[in-house]
Amino acid sequence: MVINLKYAKRMQTVKGFGTSSCWWSQYCKGQAAEDIAELLYGKTGLNLNIYRYNVGGGTDEQNCRVTNPWRKTESMYVFDKAAAEGHYDFSLDKTAVDFMKLCLSKGSIDTLILFANSPHWSLLSTGQTSGSLLCHTCNIPKMNYKKFADIFLNITEHFLNDGLPVNYISPINEPQWKWGGPDVWQEGCHYETEELTEVYHIFAEEIIRRKLPVKLCAPETGEMFGKTEEYLKALLADEKIMSVTDIFAYHSYHSDDSAETRAEFKSKISSKYRNFRFDMSEWCELPNKSHTKNFKGALITARIIGQDLIFGGAESWTAWVAVNQTSVKEDGFDYADGMLSANDDFSKWYIAERYYAMAHFAKFIPAGSVCLDTGFFPEESNDFNVFSFLSPESQTVTVIVNESEDRSVSLDGNFSKMKIVVSTQEEKLKETSLPYSGEEIVCPKNSIVTIICE
């Protein structure tokens, strides 16, 4: 197979790669924090440039149905039910904030996003951040929309005053899902489109009034289609919202085996609505069928990263959580779905196979790289994928995800040397550098291969 690089068409510019510190960083400290920060944001690690910090809704322990401590959050806004008033304590959520500062100290982060899964519990109809008692019902009364914006933006201003370079806020997450009802497991809040738009309008007004140097990242829609275009049209129709919004954030769940769905998304959405930068801001294998020691999880993750960027038109790609709780099932394997797995107090943690999928992109494709259309589209089996990029240093980087038997490729381009980086179940990020002579390159079965040419 020949990969056409000589006449490849330039497409969108990659803004970078990232992950979320939600649900785990509040327990990560000491040497574990030092090591994990370097693995994620350090020069020897992934060198990620996008960081998502969770502005939690807090927990009223007397009125909370979420049982997993990793799914509960500590808010800097403290509400006294007896006195019916609240105040701020910016010493709270200290471990998570310290970890964020540690990652910022690595010097790679240029996009710091504050996001919320739910407003603060004191503003909600149920007093529970896990959603309404009825599915598909908004849990925050309209009279509290402004208070929601005030609390979120007061915390934002605190971070800015503390020297943290916050440049985006995202107060709503996956608004279309049911959130709540009889079974709950995390924070979440449902919004109908008109409710979502009204909340964003109030946030936009307050951002402008306070003259904050932040923009809205909206609306973190939980899938590529569904209500996505409805949200887009509603946001575009509101001049105030559009004046402070330039990222349309979406999650590419529920279509992991479909390159066609991503191509359709690009055709109907990301290339059509050019007012927005389209960022894929959350994905993990869902449902997760790949345990942490199975390289299949890395293959799937790498395939999704490449397809979201090249076929779907995404301008950045962010994994859901960097670390998830160790989750050993009946077969004895751990099905944590983060790039790393840890026990509850981080006394034991390790790198999952899917970490190396992100490595094959983030370590070699810096922000500012350009996506290339080589004319490649996977066969119906979807088990062999090719993704190419042009870096700011004029290196051509091609990531090949081979989920089948050995395959050979050659590159059509004018190059003098190349570096080949290979990961399989048996070895990780094995590098070979050699002069370029146009020979075929063998991509081993079930491998991720990154080829850097100059």
What can you see in these coordinates?
It is globular and about 75 Å long. The longest helix is centred in the middle third of the chain and has 18 residues, at 193-210. It has helices at residues 30-41, 94-104, 145-161, 193-210, 228-236, 239-242, 259-270, 296-310, 355-362; strands spanning 2-4, 9-13, 16-20, 50-54, 77-80, 85-88, 111-115, 166-170, 215-221, 245-251, 277-282, 316-321, 323-325, 340-342, 349-351, 370-373, 384-390, 396-402, 407-412, 417-423, 430-435, 441-443, 447-453. Helix 3 crosses helix 4 and helix 4 packs across helix 5. 49% of the residues are buried. The protein is built from nine helices and 23 strands. The model has no long low-confidence stretch (mean pLDDT 97). Helix 1 links the parallel strand 3 (16-20) and strand 4. It has two domains: 15-368, TIM Barrel (Alpha-Beta Barrel); 384-453, Immunoglobulin-like (Sandwich). The chain is an alpha/beta fold. The protein has an eight-stranded parallel barrel, surrounded by six helices. 23% of the residues lie in helices and 26% in strands.
Features:
single chain, 454 residues, alpha/beta, TIM Barrel, Immunoglobulin-like, 2 domains, eight-stranded parallel beta barrel, seven-stranded antiparallel beta sheet, 9 helices, 23 strands
Strand order of the largest sheet: 3-4-7-8-9-10-11-12
Number of helices, where a helix is a run of at least 4 consecutive DSSP H or I residues: 9
Strand proportion, as a percent range, falls in 25-35%
Number of domains: 2
* Helix-strand category: alpha/beta
Find the CATH topology of the largest domain: TIM Barrel
Largest sheet, described in full? Answer: 8 strands, parallel, barrel
- First-to-last CA distance: 20 Å
Broad CATH class of the largest domain: Alpha Beta
State Rg. Answer: 22 Å
Which stretches are poorly predicted, pLDDT < 50 over at least 5 residues? none
Form type:
globular
Mean pLDDT metric: 97
Helix content: 10-25%
Kindly state the number of beta strands: 23
Classified in CATH, the superfamily of the largest domain is Glycosidases
CATH architecture of the largest domain: Alpha-Beta Barrel
